Amino acid sequence: MIGLVLLTGATGYVGGRLRRRLEEQGRPLRCLARRRAVLDSQVGATTEVVEGDALEPETLRAAFEGVETAYYLIHSMGSGRDFEEQDRIAAGNFGEAARRAGVRRIVYLGGLGRGDDLSPHLRSRHEVGNVLRKSGVTVLELRASIVLGSGSLSFEMIRALVERLPVMITPRWVEVQAQPIAVDDLLAYLVAALEVPLEESRVFEIGGADRVSYGDLMREYARQRGLRRVMIRVPFLTPNLSSLWLGLVTPLYARVGRKLIESIKHPTVVQDPSAIEVFPVRPRGMREAIAAAIRNEEREIAESRWYDAFSSKGESRDWSGVRFGNRFVESRTRHVAVDPDEAFAPISRIGGETGWYAYNWLWRLRGFLDLLSGGVGIRRGRPSTQQIRIGDALDFWRVERYEPGRLLRLSAEVKLPGRAWLEFEVRPHDGGSAIRQTALFDPVGLSGLAYWYLLHPLHRLVFSAMIDSIAREAAAGRRPARTASP
Fold it and tell me: What residue stretches are annotated with the NAD(P)-binding domain (predicted)?
């Protein structure tokens, strides 16, 4: 029986699904999260959550206490220019803390690819494995290609392109060979990695049963969806132009799209087949993987999505040492003659296909301008499930606090000269409910002040119309608030 397992990246796409698999098996599990509240409401009763950050080594000691095996699923895919240095430091801190705690094994998920001209993203993935091994702890590194599953970054890109574009202009990288793996097969490898016999650190290359290109994947997706699509090859789409194109028609914003394209320009196929001999996993082919992903999308049961990870928000700005001006607060309240749960219902549906209840074209324009500046844009949408969770991405916002029927607090992830939040609160009031909407902004310098004052008239227009629409939505056709019997 494997002892206590430490899982990092449990708020991310793969880590979130792996956590559920380990809980289903009854594994003793501890999750490390930068924000404990994000996971507290999601984990099983026997799973422990500790707060810590691999970039802050003093926070790791408690996380490693009593740990036998640790999963390292941390990666700064969406971060800024210094993501390689951040990954290097985080891996070094993690490996050293594991060594001091006497950890038996680190399981690390890296990326396939060989050669001296790898993209910065793939080069960093390989370097992280080397840094972890230098700690002296035995490391089992799995190197995977494209991950196919509902909500995965690659599948979301394929789905959006094929569904939205009858005719696709495709650059050369669309035909580069890869060996995609179904997310369920990847999870099977990760779970089996706990018990695979290992005398020393080792790297295993893993992939699905087929060697195909992104073009093959798009054609197969179209076939299974019954769509006729035309793909026209062009030689002149640079990674920058391609990433902007992806940002306009898919949920990927430009920075992530550019890193993805820089990586898939290189073949990512398995050259060492030893994983098939060592692991009790027989990975499926492309058709089965796509079919499973489509089924999950249609059932709206995607367990996690690539943008669930906080690194998906793009370049993380370090606010330490920044002096903020006075906080601007703008609040308005509407009263409705319905119960608080009914008054809160429209708020719980906000974002994604529902939109923002007023001037949705302005919200889309704001997202487009953010996309052009390298931000997240608005195409991330929201999880398909009705229930909001702390940490969810809602278009270009992130759920910071959520209390069903009472409170939703969103933090902005667009590029701003400061920090911004949008909060909705519902309370009982005079036999009905009071809906309060509050916008908060912490400006930085003169640019922050100019931003607030220049856009304040527009914000007043949009936010006033928004809360009016929410109040009408809550009142229209809803059951009236309960009143005391005479």
Answer: 9-132
